[in-house]
Amino acid sequence: MKNNISIDVKVNFIEEQSNASINQYTFAYTITITNNGSIGAQLLTRRWRIQDETGHTEDVIGEGVVGERPHLLPGESYQYSSGSVIKTPTGTMKGAYGMVNDEGERFEADIAEFILSEPYTLH
Q: Which long-range contacts (CB under 8 A, 24 or more apart) does 56-65 make?
C-alpha cells in the first residue's frame, strides 16, 4: 500500500500543571508517526477533537505539528510531544493528519481515539 501511515500515542498526566479546584487537568502526549507505505509523504495539517467526560468538545485545526511539517520517506518515523488541558479528570482525543504523498496525492492519516486520564480514575 502506497499511503500507509501508522500513529502511536503515549499519554502522561501532568500533576504539577493540574488543579482540580479550578477543573484544570493537564496531559502531555507523545506521538510517533511512521511511514509504512511505499512512497514518501509530508504532513501538512492536523485536526483534533478533544472531549471531556461532560461531553464538552473542542476542535483544533491547524497547519503542521509543533510548528513543523515533517516529510517521511518509507520506513521513517517522526516523533513530537504536545499537550492538552481539559476540565475533567478523564477525556478523549482523536483526529487526523492531512498528508500529501510524493506524487501530489492528498490523503488523511486517521488518529484513533485515545484516553486522557488522571492516574487511578479508570477502573
A: 56/87, 60/95, 65/31, 65/97
Distance CA 55, CA 63 (A): 26
Q: Considering the domain boundaries, does residue 122 fall inside one?
A: no
User: What is the mean pLDDT of each successive set of 10 residues along the chain, which is 123 residues long?
Assistant: 96 96 97 98 98 96 97 98 96 98 98 90 52
What's at 31, amino acid-wise?
I
Q: Which pLDDT does position 108 carry in this prediction?
A: 98
Q: Look at the chain and report how many structural domains it folds into.
A: 1
Structural domain boundaries enclosing 46:
5-117
Q: What is the CATH number of the domain that holds 79?
A: 2.60.40.1470
